[in-house]
Amino acid sequence: MKILSRIRAIFIAIEFSMTVLLTIVLMYLFPKSTRTIRRFWAKMQTYLIGFHIVQKGAMAEETTLLVMNHQSLLDIVTLEAIHPRDLCWVAKKEIGDIPLFGHILRAPRMIAIDRNDKRSIVKLIKVGQERLNEGRILAMFPEGTRGHGDRLLKFQSGAKILAEKLGLIVQPAVIVGARHVLDSKTLMANGGDIDVIFLDPINPKEDEHWYEKMHDAMSKTLQEHTSSK
């Protein structure tokens, strides 16, 4: 089984790389259709990789910041496939620095930040407001890095500062099963379901402890749904 899982992961890595490059080219050729192109690519991945997305809970229309736990490369693919709005992902600068593939951030005008630069939060707030003015929704992984899938890591402060400075409505979403379908760290892949559980939206102005409570709610939801799989 491990051999088959590894072979499957290698196939996915090759397919993923090729289609990402094609997607980048198409987004540069058709800059007004980047959202349509990304969504088509994401939906295509569900068939090529062989997984099914199960949505639980409703996406709130008033959301301006979407926050999620981070397990796998498929987290972004999953949300791109099911979310109706044009998401603007906040990613670490290192992704944008990757030769050729870094254009996956530049072509659709995502936000890349340098976590080692204290001025990055100023850039995040400024560019974040610009993307909101364009009608996009900001999307972040407050953990800052990929976790093991069964527990939530400590949240970094970026999402909290961004939400409070710009007066955003935050909707948390919990992703379960993405690492089982594709673990890019160990290069193992399996079919199956990826669950996305949307929790109630939050207005930070209503509770000064909203960030800590959101972490607790997401952590509890992740543990409950992980144990039930």
From TrEMBL:
Pathway: Phospholipid metabolism; CDP-diacylglycerol biosynthesis; CDP-diacylglycerol from sn-glycerol 3-phosphate: step 2/3; Lipid metabolism. It is found in: Cell inner membrane. CDD domains: LPLAT_AGPAT-like (cd07989). Keywords: Acyltransferase, Cell inner membrane, Cell membrane, Lipid biosynthesis, Lipid metabolism, Membrane, Phospholipid biosynthesis, Phospholipid metabolism, Transferase, Transmembrane, Transmembrane helix. It comes from the Bacteria. The keyword Membrane applies. This is 1-acyl-sn-glycerol-3-phosphate acyltransferase. The lineage of its organism: Bacteria, Pseudomonadati, Campylobacterota, Epsilonproteobacteria, Campylobacterales.
